[in-house]
Amino acid sequence: MALDSSTAPFLPPELEREIFEIAAVVHPATICHLILVSHRVYDWVERIKFNTVIPKQIDCAATCTIHELVTAIKSETKPIYFFRDRVRHLFIQNLPDEAIETILSACGAVESLVLFQSFGTIPSLQLTTSPRRLSIYIGDLLDPKQLAAHPLFTSVTHLDLFDQVHSHRDNIVEHLALMPMLTHLAMWNGSTTPDVLAAVLDRCIGLETVIDMHGSMSTAISRLTRDDEMRIVSMTVEDTQYLEDWITGTQGGSDFWARADAFIAKKRRGDIQPSSRCWIEDTDGI
After folding, report:
1. How far is CA 49 from CA 100, 125, 236, in A?
2. Secondary structure E strands in the chain
3. Which of 40, 142, 155, 256 is the S-S candidate for 168 at Cβ 3.0 to 4.6 Å?
4. Domain check: are 39 and 59 in the same one?
5. What is the pTM of this model?
6. DSSP designation for 211
7. How far apart are CA 76 and CA 67, in angstroms?
8. pLDDT tens per residue, range 82-140
């Protein structure tokens, strides 16, 4: 007997879309099958697929690889606004300048950008909407050709600086002071000194959180803390964990920024003992 269309199951479009989007995020391996369901599902899931772009495919999240993105851009089968509207989080590593040029020229609305390599001066950076979250080598930030007044830096609220460039320590305060929206700063072990950090905290009055970042627990020593300073957190993110931690943050999870904010909030409430401690312990529940 034929099914009466008037009694067939029916879901509101908003709920239907939510179901497919949740399935794509929670079970990324199903994306290649979900996009075959219908044209509308293809549009919904494809948006999720290109939302976060990373160097290599991993199983922890719905992501697109750099290779897939570059191939799609070069195919010229999508309208010019397609990648601008979809790519929101971008992790670049070990790419030639030509590939970076191709990506940044097409993806003009990136909100979170990791440049896990030194890039020098790339013209397309002037075409990219300034990200709110930026991870970059400290030498590139302090390059006289870039300067923190460059459009790339004007909207940055969360800045993660890599590497140990001792020769630039004296210049970093001036550069960071030029970033009007900066509220969160992470600096890797060795890239600063207590005196320089104190100057950064004094000059950058909008800073709410400063992370003294380490690659391993053995070097995570509270050496940059002032007794009266509540904004500093000393913490570790190992190189092998960085990518997954970053992806977690792009999807609203607890990344190192969120953990640092949670620790500072607990410290301000008096929940961290002793009050001089500036590193997270397991008992903190963060």
Report:
1. 20, 24, 30
2. 52-54, 64-65, 89-92, 112-115, 133-137, 158-162, 184-188, 209-214, 232-236
3. 142
4. no
5. 0.84
6. E
7. 15
8. 999 889 999 999 888 888 888 988 998 999 999 888 766 555 565 666 899 999 888 77
